[in-house]
Amino acid sequence: MDSTWAKRNAPLLAGLAIAVAAIVYTAFTSSKDETFWADQFFNGLTIGSLYALIALGYTMVYGVLRMINFAHGEIFMVGAFAGWIVLKEVFGGDGMADALIVPAILVAMLAAAAASAGAIVVIERVAYRPLRNAPRLAPLISAIGVSIFLQNLFLRLTEGRVKVYPRIFPQGPSESIDLGITQVDYIQIFLIGSSLLLMGALYVFVQRTRAGTAIRAVAEDRDVAALMGINANRVIVLTFVVGAALAGVAGVMYGLWLLSIKGTMGFLPGIKAFTAAVLGGIGNIPGAMIGGLLIGLSETLGREWLNELFGLGLGNQWKDVVAFFVLIAVLLFRPTGLLGEKVGKRA
Amino acid sequence: MPDDRERGRAGLAGALAVVKGRSERAYGSVPGMLRMLVLAVLLFAVPYYINPISGEAMFDNRWLVVFRLVGLYIMLGIGLNIVVGYAGLLDLGYVAFFASGAYLYALLASPVSPAIDFPIEDYRWLFWAILPTALVVGAAIGIALGIPVLPLRGDYLAIVTLGFGEIIRLFLINKADWTGGSQGLSRIEPPPLPAPIGDLTVGAHKEWYMFVVICIFVVAFIAGRLRDSRIGRAWEAIREDEEVAGAMGVNTVKYKLLAFAMGAAIGSFGGAVSAGFTGSALPDSFDLLVSINVLSLVVIGGMGSTPGVCLGALILIGIPEFLRFREASDLLGYLDPLVPFANTQDWAEQIRDNRFVVFGALLVAVMVFRPTGLVPSRRRKLEFESPGEEAPAAAV
Amino acid sequence: MSKWFIRHAWRLALVAGLTAMLGLAVACGDDDDDAAATGTPTRGASATPADVGGENVVTIAAGEPIKIGAMQVLSGDLIALGAAARDWILLANEQFGQVKGFDVEIVEADDLCDAAGAEPAAQQLLAEDGLVAVIGSICSGVNVTVQPTFEEAHITQISGGSTAVKVTYPEGRDPFDTFLRTVVHDGVQGVKQAEYATEVLGATTAFSAHDTDAYGTGLKDVFNAEFEDLGGEIVGTEGWEKGQTDFSALVTSVTTANPDMVYVASFDPEAAAFIRQLRDAGYEGDFMGGDGVITDQFLTLAGDAAEGAHLSKPSPLEVTPALTKFQADFQAKFGYTWDEQPYTSQSFDAYQVVWDALNEVAVVEGGNLVIDLDALNDAMHDANFDGASGHVEFDDHGDVIAAPGKPQIVFSKVVSGAYVQQDFE
After folding, report:
1. pTM for this prediction
2. What's the domain range around C228?
3. Is B135 left (phi over 0), alpha (psi -120 to 50) or beta?
């Protein structure tokens, strides 16, 4: 067994070996100190966690329906706005009492999850369900339409202006933990930690609960699952809802961290998250998590590493290019993504 | 001498037979070809229609500018139709080809271009030389982008092509010393035409419109012939089920690359024309939204069908533009007496200001009510509507 | 029978659509005068036969308004910028009132800040009868595309926000007579900023951050070149795409390089997020930005992180009672502060240039108002007054020049959450 496994995955192992060698080489010859690399590492993990949360929504929906929900980035945006409204109107924004902060954040996240879930339920009913059996591009175009609709709706509602989250999460030069090699901000820990928690919860949900098993069943073969007594429609809606809730919470986390939200904020993270889902293997939940983290890391750490290795001057403006290159490179060697796709028959 | 006349008549009969045969192959019948001809002439003469009431041109520059834009998107749609509609390859990065043609022309024709440093004004005929070059360069780029994505299917192909499109756009913006950067390349001299017609300046809207009409007919003709040939049938086979097609002996690699090449060639051609009539190439114009627009109009219009593409372009590109005309709000204002409670003029302004929100809703509405598109090719309709049979899984 | 309809539905739809278009064109035909791009001599609102002779003259019949076009970006991502400029123009329109007894109407056109949207917007404006001038656009890409069109139509364009140098310094030809701008271009601002950085801030190293739009890259290029000419060192130049909010990777690069100052060439939303993240990461050097940053929104978005930032713009040299009244009126009418977005006071001054010139040049003849477009252009070129954005006077390229003895670029520092002007020549 071992030799055939090694032979089959030879290119991957070779690639890994080269990568490790390159990392070691850079570690010894880099002009930048370890703090820089460690910082970029944590930067990558932070944004990568958000990408991972959003990517989960894409991948779950694809697993169940074989459909790219192009509007998922806008669901993320809706959640961010819902959280903003709650924090400002219900809790009083920047002026809220210190004791209220933790409950406020929790309530905001719940509200965002609810808002995003509500939005996706309506969208699914109106724009996706009628197209269940349509040619494959029809739901995609419909999703694009929803995306454009939501983006421009929120742009018009806010008159294109940026809205600001209350700065209630402690952020600042000293709001961090000293790891010796670098400082990790509280907000970064919060983001990475919460994302990991949520992803863990999702994994348990999908693997251990009845509802989760139903989702997996429908993803595998919708007709047979129906034969087994599973209400496919309800499971599909549940899948959408879970994915949307995760994206909504990601929206609030984004708002608490970066503070500015705008109607068009979901577009680029949506595309990155979709990339992450494909990178990890579409339909594959752990794949989406890994894909998200990988995309986040390649934007920050990967880019700087390439700069170091090849003397490229790839500044911040090239980060999307690096992310897409990583995607293309991975797909070239593993056309169904890193962990392989997990889609059943298209029912 | 009777022999000559007989020979002449025989020659004439022979020529007529050839024309009949050719037009039958291309248009299904002689009347079909004549119909196309009449349509071509009608469209061509649009700038000259005289409004009977006022004696002025019916379609002034405002209209011509919009028609020209719609025409450009029709061309792009026909190109993408080949990739997505005929061959079933989901390409979300079509803007890359569009940009390549535009920048090919702009890099050679703009005085601010970093690529050249000779007096380009002396070589304004360059445009006419660039047009066929754009086709070739586009095809080459199409093949270059097609090779790495050959093993990818469906949605993987979509995201990778999207990635390519974005990479190209970011490259255009950030590699300023090669591409002129985000300032773009502008002040391109107008392509010259023989004297009585006059140069194709940025302001020569009539002439540009007619040029675009000619281009559309040429491109549509080429696309139609491709579809009705062995190549087209190979594409159809690949679209329906790639593995089976391969098993039946269709060289999928060759035909997929050919589809990319043809689509890219047309896209590139459209790009060169676009750079010509705007006189510039600005990287902001080549973003993901263009790819999405072209894909949407192809799907909305009906995939695999050229009239569908035309209708899709008119609706998706034309309507947001027409909504901005003063006439649009005036027209809706005429409805005022019918709707006593509301101020329809106000509504019209609201629609105009919110036209992109309306656009999004329109996409959803059209898809929900006509999933095969507004003017689907007959084959799609059959596929979709045949009772008791589900849509083939691989069909796009 | 119905089957026939269904089968030929699309053909019927096409025919119906074409008929509708024809109907539209015919019905509104007599209001359509297409003389603009072909340059026929007279354009009139109701085609009065007895038009005053001469080239490029606009005659406005009694009771009809004079029209000024506002070509701005009114949809999409940049709507905040364009809408603000348009609101300023509308307020100016209200405040300045009539010209010689004729109303002035603002006609809006959305140019989408894109070369594709530019020409349709221009054509729409040119199709309006009674159009005498156009205020816009903020986007240099749009201007570059439509300058020839307006030149052909003898309509003067005046922009309150387009700052690319090449708009008034076109390659291979003379500057466009029909283009003016009340905003200082990048070539002036960038140079002055570099001087301020080296002389006042005493910076020897700088990190240059910019947005990847034409505005950001253009301004950054000028600043970098001048800063290095003056002996400074640019330790890094990195960009971001408009709309970006997560700058953590960039902040890490900056803190590692630890320059004396950070220079930003972009608009306020990104600059605000960037400075906030910079300060949160512990960076303590100086921060400098330009006219795209110095807005009220920057102070709101950046909060206390904005403290100590140095920003430049051509700003009102004296706050006159008239200006105070304008500010109050603006807030009352539109609900947000007058200075929340950049390029608003410049658009206001642009309106004044047009209005003053109209008053000078328009002649009432037999109940109609006659305006010679070329004379209007000359009068606009001759403008000379102190407006909301500073001194307004044009050079032969159409750029605004400084009042004699007064600086064109003014620097402010953020102190306790407000802009405090600094002395610098």
Report:
1. 0.85
2. 187-315+408-421
3. alpha
